[in-house]
Design goal:
Elements: H1 2-65, H2 68-130, E1 134-136, E2 139-140, H3 141-185, H4 187-190, H5 201-219, H6 223-227
Helix pairs in contact: 3-5
């Protein structure tokens, strides 16, 4: 009996030890598997790093063999083109602004002329409504209005030319009087001009009157200004 009990106990101990060894072997196997996976990932990283270094080396070799001066020249040419395009853009903006200003001026003149035409048309309609179709025998009202406008323009031009001629004559007379006064002040001409009439205070007042009359002629409104 005792021998059987001892054998049973020894078998139980052996089985327990075997279970421990199996469990420890399983743990070691798991550790080995994880280590193998890590080693595989490390080897893959090493191969990728080698491939990256090879690619970098190939790119560096291409860069070294390339003509750097040609690359710098192309970059400088592109920079000059960019600067030229910027200057052209500025000039286009300035031209566009000038064109807009000119268009505003043209449109303002167009509106002014159009309003003047509308006023003239209204005046023609009013004249036609108050009078018959003819002012004189055989003369149409439109022809009469055209003749009156032409006559008014000719009168205005004639008055302006006459005013300019009068102003020129008065200016020449004033300059003549001033030149005579200057010659009278020079000693060498005093003997030659002693027999002639010298300028006195009346002549100076005449100069002032001439200047005032010239200003009045220049400021006198003509028929054309009244029409406007």
């Amino acid at each position: 009996m005792k021998m059987s009990q001892l054998s049973n106990n020894s078998m139980d101990q052996l089985l327990a030890e075997m279970c421990k060894h199996v469990s420890s072997l399983q743990d070691k196997l798991q550790v080995a598997d994880s280590a193998a996976n890590k080693a595989h990932s490390i080897t893959e990283g090493i191969t990728q790093a080698k491939e990256y270094q090879e690619k970098v080396a190939s790119l560096n070799s291409c860069w070294r063999t390339k003509n750097r001066s040609q690359l710098v020249g192309s970059l400088q040419q592109e920079n000059r083109q960019i600067v030229a395009l910027g200057e052209e853009n500025k000039q286009l903006k300035f031209a566009l602004k000038e064109m807009e200003d000119g268009m505003h001026l043209i449109m303002s003149d167009y509106r002014r002329v159009l309003s003047g035409f509308m006023r003239v048309e209204n005046l023609d309609q009013a004249v036609c409504s108050k009078t018959n179709n003819t002012y004189f025998a055989g003369v149409d009202h439109k022809d009469y209005i055209g003749m009156t406008r032409a006559a008014g323009k000719y009168m205005a031009v004639t008055e302006q030319s006459m005013a300019g001629d009068k102003a020129t004559i008065m200016q020449l007379e004033a300059e003549n009087i001033i030149l005579r006064s200057i010659l009278n002040d020079i000693p060498i001409y005093q003997g030659a001009t002693s027999s002639k009439t010298k300028i006195d205070n009346n002549d100076l007042s005449k100069i002032i009157e001439v200047d005032e009359h010239q200003e009045d002629l220049m400021n006198t409104p003509t028929k054309e200004s009244f029409k406007e």
